[in-house]
Amino acid sequence: MSGYVVWLTGDRARMDALADALRVGLAGTAGALDVLTAELVEDKLCSNEPRGADFRDVVVRRLGWLGHVLSRNGCALIAVAASPRREVRDDVRKLVGNFLEVLVHGTMPDGYETPHYPEVEAAAGEAPGAVVARVRQALLDNGYLAASGNVYSAEEEARIKDRLEKLGYL
Amino acid sequence: MGRRRVMVIGLDCAEPSLVFDRFAAVMPNLRRLMKRGLWGPLRSTIPPITVPAWTCMVSGSDPGELGIYGFRNRKGYGTYEMDFATSKAVRVPRLWDILGDAGRTSTVLFVPQTYPPAASLKGSMVTCFLTPGPESEWARPAELKQTLEAAFGPYIVDVPDFRTDDRSRLLQSIYTMSGQHFGMARYMLAREDWDFFMMVDMGTDRFHHGFWKQFNPDHPKFVPGNPLEGAGRDYYAYLDRELGTLLSYADDDTTVLVVSDHGARTMKGGICVNEWLLRHGYLALKSVPDKPTPLTKVEIDWSRTKAWGEGGYYARVFLNVRGREPQGLIPPEQADTECRALQSLLEAIPDEQGKPIGTVAHRPADIYPVVNGTPPDLIVLFGNLAWRSVGSVGLGKIHTFENDTGPDAANHDWDGILVAAGAGVPAHGRLEGSEVRDVARTVLQLLDVPAPASTGGRSILDRIAAG
After folding, report:
1. Which tens digits make up the pLDDT trace of B65-115?
2. What was the ipTM of the complex prediction?
3. Which class does domain B5-267+412-465 fall in?
4. Extents of the domains making up chain A
5. Dist CA B405 CA B390 (whole Å)
6. Which of B12, B79, B81, B84 would you mutate first to test chain A, the one with the most A CBs within 10 A?
7. Every domain of chain B and the residues it spans
8. In the CATH scheme, what is the code of domain A4-166?
9. Residue A106 has pLDDT above 60, yes or no
10. Could you give the C-alpha distances from B128 to A77, B93, B112, B132, B361, in angstroms and in order?
11. Rounded to two decimals, what is the model's pTM?
12. Choosing among B58, B66, B69, B71, which should be mutated to test the A contact, i.e. which has the most A CBs within 10 A?
C-alpha cells in the first residue's frame, strides 16, 4: 500500500474541521493515517529555532519532510498548515511525490500565494463532507490509491476518447 | 508609450505553404501584418501534434520536460493503462501563470490542455476541446459561462460527428464552431481588461483533416473540378476576415502574433503498427479478430508480448520489460538491444510496393534533454509523417488507405506558421529557424516580464538581434 500527503493550504481557521472529516473519510486508505498541524511541528520540532523572517517556511518544510517519510513508508498524512508561500509548498510537493494539495478558500493569510493547480478546492462555506469526497476521488485520479481514475467521469472519459479517435488523434 | 499588450491568435494546423504562398492572395489582413513585421515557419515539437505542442509553446518546455508525449500517456510503468493529458498533467507554469504572478491579466480562450481551468488564473479563460461538453465547467471565472451562453448559446466544444461522409454538413459545422469561437473572442476583447490575450481556433485543423484531398492536387485522390476544390481558398479567406476583426482590438502598443502548432501535408495511408508487431513476433494476442478492432478491445497475451503500439498521426511503441511492466517479458539487460533492433526494423518498413518511405523512429532519451513521466520507448514517424499509425488489429495487412477511425487525407507536418507585428517587432521580413518553444520567451520579453530559469526556447526578438 502506498502512502500519500493531503496538504491543506489557505484559510487556517477552516482546516481543523476539514482535517477531522478527512481522517474519518480516508480511514483505511493507507497503512496508517494521521493529522499533523504546523503548530504542532512548531511546538515539538522547532521550539529552539530563531523566530526570523523564514521561520514559517522552516516549519512548513519540516512538516513536509515528515510527510515524505510517512508516505514513503505507506502511511498517509493530513497536513494542516496555512503555508502561504507557493514556492515552499511546491518544494514539499517535489519531495513527497504522492502529494495532493487542497486549497481551502476563506480568509487567507497575509501575502498568501494561491496554488496554480490545486488538485482540490474547498469553497468558502462548503461542508467538509463534499470536500472529502473530492479528495478521495483526486487520490484515485492521481493513482495514490489502489484504484485509478482521472479528471473525467467514466462517461466523460468515453466521450473524450471517442472524440479524439474520430478526430484521428488516437 | 502606452500599456504594452500581446495578442496571440493560434490557428491549429495552419500550413505555411498555404498561408504564405498558395492562399496569400485571399489573406490581406495577414499580409499586412507580414509586411509590418516578421514571418516564417515555426518548427513544431516531436511529435508535431496539438498535445503537447501548444503547451510547449506557452511554457517554453519540450515534451520530455513536460512528460507529455501525446493526448494519452501511460499512467506509469506499473500499469498498461493510459490517461488523458488534461491541464492537471501540466506541471510547469504557462504564460498566464507567469504573467499572473507578475500582476498581469490574461484572457485565454480554447487553448489546448486548459481543461479543467486553472484555479489561480488572473484573468479569464474558456477551456479547450478536451472539455467533456457544454454542461462542463468550462469558464473562469465561473460566472463567465453563463454570460457567454446568454450571448452565444451552448459552447460548441468541438465539431460534432467529425467522421462523416456528409461533407456539406461537416463544412458547415466547422464554420459554425469557428464562428462561435471568434465571436466569443471579439466579445472578450471588447469587455476584458487584458495584458495578454490568446485564442486557438481548432477549425483549421478540422478543416484540413476533413477536406485535404478535395482541395490539394498533390493528394492521390484529388479529383480536378470536384465541388469542394475551392473550399481551401474559401476557408483561409474566412480565417483572414476573422483575423481582421480581431486586429481592430490591437492598438499601437499591442504586439500581434499569429501562430500554428504544426502544419499539414498529404497523408498517403496508414501503417498498421500492431499488425506489423503481431506478424514479427513482438505482439501476441489470445485470439486475433477477423475485422478491424482497437487493441484495447482485444486480449493481449502479455506473457508472449515484447512490444505494442498506439495509433494516431504518429506511433508510440512500448516495450514490455520484466520488472518494469506488470507482466514484463524482455529481460531488463536486453531492453536496450531490443529497442535498437526494433527501431531499425520499424524504420525499414517499406510502402505497399516495397519502396522505402523514410520512417524515423526516435528514442526519447536521444531527442529530449530530460525525459519525465512514462515515455514511449519509441516515437515513430512513418514516412516522416506521410503515413499515419493505425493501432487496430484484425485488418490482415500492414498498409491501409482507410483510417481505422474513418477517412482522413491529411497528416501533420513539421512546420507551423509564425507572423508577428506591432509594438516591439521590427519590419524584418522572413525569419527562419524559430520553433514553437520560442513563443513563451518572446511574449514575456515583449511584456517585460522575466522568464523563469526553467523556460526553454529563445525569444524571436533575440534571434533577430543576433542576425
Report:
1. 998 999 999 877 777 888 899 988 887 889 999 999 899 999 999 999 999
2. 0.87
3. alpha beta
4. 4-166
5. 9
6. B84
7. 5-267+412-465, 269-407
8. 3.40.50.300
9. yes
10. 35, 18, 5, 9, 30
11. 0.80
12. B71
